[in-house]
Design goal:
251 residues, alpha/beta, 46% helix, 16% strand, binds adenosine-5'-diphosphate, Sc_DH/Rdtase_CS, oxidoreductase
Length: 251
């Protein structure tokens, strides 16, 4: 891998497992200084230890991304520790309970929207402020294939991931002339702890059939796209939504 992120400072939320872990590791391998932020500090520390063992630069940071003050403090930590902020992967999230709208409790709905949607607004607000001070930057918001498609039993997750696509478009319009690019990534079903914990084997086998490529995705395959969008190679790409989905949405 080339060191194309040498000297860059990047925050990855949800870096303690799955897609965020793969993003943090690939970014560090490519030379970035990574703030590996997660509610699960053990997970973030494990990822950072792996990165450091390979000679990379990263620090763990405990965060609940649904707390706006904590998000502001996380961005301030990156800037005071590493001097600036160049990139961010707003990836932390939860699937939420699996049940249809009429059965969804109000508090369950609010919690998923807080963690999956409001958090990304908080992150972008503070990240963009820091990036503007530094002459620009690049942000990737982790949406989902469920940013365009519905999925029975996941109304709050689907609503959040659709909203992230809209918010990404707006950020692209608002900041493209100011050097900050913002994109959303839409992975189909990726084999991560989120999927393994939420869905039994039969459901996972059913999900495989929804992907014409014949398998679920791998976290590394999402991270490949994230790194491209964060990099200067994507200098004309902003305000848009990019699938990594094994042809799921093509059907
Ligand atoms: P995926 O990689 O598919 O998104 P995972 O469940 O493997 O799914 O990863 C999501 C990550 O987000 C986990 O490491 C989890 O601890 C983290 N996370 C979940 N909720 C929060 C939160 N409120 N604040 C910070 N991190 C969170």
């Amino acid at each position: 891998m080339t060191r194309e992120f040498e000297g860059k400072v990047v925050i990855v939320t949800g870096a303690g497992s799955g897609i965020g872990e793969a993003c943090a590791k690939q970014l560090a391998e490519a030379g970035a200084k990574v703030v590996a932020a997660d509610m699960n500090l053990d997970g973030a520390e494990r990822v950072v230890a792996d990165i450091q063992a390979k000679g990379g630069e990263a620090l763990p940071y405990k965060i609940d991304v649904s707390d706006p003050a904590a998000v502001g403090a996380m961005v301030a930590y990156a800037v005071t520790t590493y001097g600036k902020l160049d990139g961010a992967v707003n990836n932390a999230g939860i699937g939420g309970p699996l049940k249809p709208i009429a059965d969804y409790e109000i508090d369950e709905w609010k919690h998923v929207i807080d963690v999956d949607l409001h958090s990304v607004f908080y992150c972008m607000k503070y990240e963009i402020q820091a990036m503007l001070k530094n002459g620009g930057g690049s942000i990737v918001n982790m949406s989902s294939i469920l940013g365009t498609n519905g999925f029975a039993g996941a109304p709050a997750y689907v609503a959040s991931k659709h909203a992230l696509v809209g918010m990404t478009k707006n950020a692209g319009i608002e900041y493209s002339a100011h050097g900050v690019r913002v994109n959303a990534v839409g992975p189909a079903f990726i084999k991560t702890p989120l999927i393994d914990n939420a869905l039994d084997d039969a459901t996972q086998e059913f999900l495989v059939t929804k992907h014409p490529i014949g398998r679920l995705g791998r976290p590394e395959e999402v991270a490949n796209l994230v790194l491209f969008l964060l990099s200067d190679k994507a200098s004309f790409i902003t305000g848009s939504y990019h699938l990594v989905d094994g042809a799921y949405a093509a059907q």
